[in-house]
User: What shape does this take?
Amino acid sequence: MIESIPLHWSFDYNHGAQKPDYARELIELLHLYKDSSDSRNVNTVNGQHRRHVYQILPNYWHGYQRRNNQNESISIGEVVVERRQENGDLWKYNVRYINNTNGENLRYRFSCRDEIYRPLHENWNVEVHNSCTDIYSKLSWDGYLTSIPEIQLRINNTDITAGKIDNSLPLTCNWALFDVFPALVESNKEKVDSVDIAILDDLEQLRPKCRIGYLDTIESPISLVGYFLYGTGSLPSYWWVDANGNTVIVSSVFETLVLKEKMG
Amino acid sequence: MNQHPNILFINTDQHSWDAISAYGNPYLHTPNIDLLHQNGVSFTKSYCTDPVCAAARSSWATGLYTSETGVPFNGGQLHPEIPDIGQVLKKGGYRAFHCGKWHVPGRDVRESFEVLYYGNDNIGAGGAAYYDSASTHAVADFLTNYDEKEPFYLQIGYIDPHDVCEYLHNHEEKRIPNPVEQGILSENELPPLPENFDYDIRETVLNRVCRRVDDALIHSRILKAVREWDELHWRYFRWNYYRFIEKVDAEIGRVLSLLQQTSFNDNTLIIFSADHGEACGSHQLFQKFALYEESVRVPFIVSCLREGISIEKERFDNTHFVSGVDLLPTVCDYANIETPEASQGMSLRPLVERNDTNWREHAYIESNYWGRAIITDQHKYITEYIPKTTEDFIPPGPDEKQLGLVQLFDKQNDPGENVNLAYEPNYQEVIDTCRDKLLKQESQLNRQKNVHNRPQNTITNWGNRLQDYWQNSK
Assistant: This one.
């Protein structure tokens, strides 16, 4: 009777086109990660190596069509967040995002300093491959922070400015938030007042002023602490963290990422 | 000016005319659409032809009103013999590209355009969260690689802020607490209720049956949910709508930033508009489908970021009525291509260049197949056709005897459209004049039978419900 388990409103999409599979699949994924045997810290020569794999469940009502067999997963893709600690004070991220709906397969490579808000460090690279059959098939760009300070992107040898940075706010990337919220829990800051930060969404879109803060604590279906995030050009999303430093659920307008596998 | 400039048509979806920070809206920040206004002419009396996606888009594509195109609602089918903007431009020597949302049922976008990106399953009505950034990537790839000798026409169909519909659907089966009681937002961060939140219930039967009654024809489950909303929920809905617009503004920003770094910047005409607006709580309505200003009035900006095309900077044109049917003739005029003879639209180029031209004195809008509006400087006249007893599937009009209820608003003294003057005896002369304008306008349309099953079924089912309402209200 998994369907009858109430979900928190922030990730409850057990209705509409997905009913009742959304809750069942979400809870099955949670059990999968909880039962995962490889939950130990993995130390490399230079520090930790962590890898989290998320299933993308669709939130959206409009236009959702399950492909193929009705008994198959409602999943529409996968996210792999992998990072290694290097030289003690840097985390090198390698994130893959594969979305079967829009056809894009993205790889993000970037570095952050080992601080609570994971400030973005120096330069980064994004590669996109599009599996759709029309003209656009791939794109890549490099980005870097200038001394002005502003964000520069180089797309096919064309340089553009992606925005000026307010130095009073930490600048991070949305993919590093998978470690920011657990760090808040770990530092016992989970219930402090909300905090303003700047986010470079997908390493291309600057959201100059976003707010993160504590949302709620739940015990079912598992024990989790929740946070919210919103800002200019950024719809609210909800981030749920377990007691072991894992971001377990991330729910935004169109999708919910659910942790299914972890290492470190 | 080059006789064949490149033309970029950037469109958003469900974007009301005033949801732009350069126009003085304090509840959102749209620096990139502002940039288009700062480098161009904004037509503030711009109206869609029909406040729903597919219908309005069929007018953009053809220069025809929706009773002519075969797409009077989302389930219509474009009549096959009508040429579209892609075909016209290709014939005129342009390379015609499409990227993102198209939503003109009955016409395969790939037959009329070279398509940069259209999703895995062909983009439908919604899905900005996935498709808009991919569209920007596709355009980035295009702008940094295009080196053909022919000029290009590129239309970019962004979906946001249409994803506000997802926000609404999410309320259908669960209670989402307002963010103030959750401690996420403070009340003073939320926009206020619109001044025209309350409304005059003396609406057309069509609007009541489509949008108000318990089993409303359009999205009745959302209606049921929003009836439970308190003031903060409505205000939070508005807050969300503005965030969706900021999101798409940022996408537009990346396109403009790239364009500015290319050799096309000096010689690219940019047109920005939206297919229809969003009620956003006005008249206690959500989404579109109604003939009130918030749903039918849309941005329309003609711009160039450099000096290669003669366009005044930062000018508001508050005088001329612009319609979605004007897109095709405007593009053709700038491209030096002949506009299809059947087009109902007019080129905005003389208005942009401040040249004398005879211009229309009203806007004409259709809605939900039977709804009609005429907008003049002083009044808005809304009416409806009563469904035919024996349906022939030819869009109604011009037929005075079949007209139903009327809403009349004084636009100068009641811009929020709060008081229906149609029941005031003093206004009969105004109503008669507006009705004559409507009938005259409709006598110039080439209305064609909807021959496909799906639109016929919709017309039959909706018509029956409307007939029932008329019968029961007697």
